[in-house]
Amino acid sequence: MIRSYDCKIVLADGSEYPGYRFGARVDQVCEIVFNTSMVGYQEIVSDPSYTGQLVVMTYPIIGNYGVTDEDYETKTPSIGGLVVREYNDIPSNFRCTKTLSEVLEDHGIPAIEGVDTRRLTRSIRDHGSRKALLTGIDVPAEEAAARLEAARLRRDQVAQVSCRKRWYARTSNHRYNVVAVDCGIKLNIVRSLNQRGCNVTVVPYDTPAKIIEDMEPDGIFLSNGPGDPEDVTPVIELVRQLRGKRPIFGICLGHQMIALAYGGRTYKLKFGHRGGNHPVKELATGKLEITSQNHSYAVDADSLAGTGLAATHVNVLDNTVEGLACPRDRVFSVQYHPESAPGPQDSGYLFDRFIAMMEEEKRHA
Question: Is 252 part of the annotated catalytic residue set?
Answer without folding.
Answer: yes
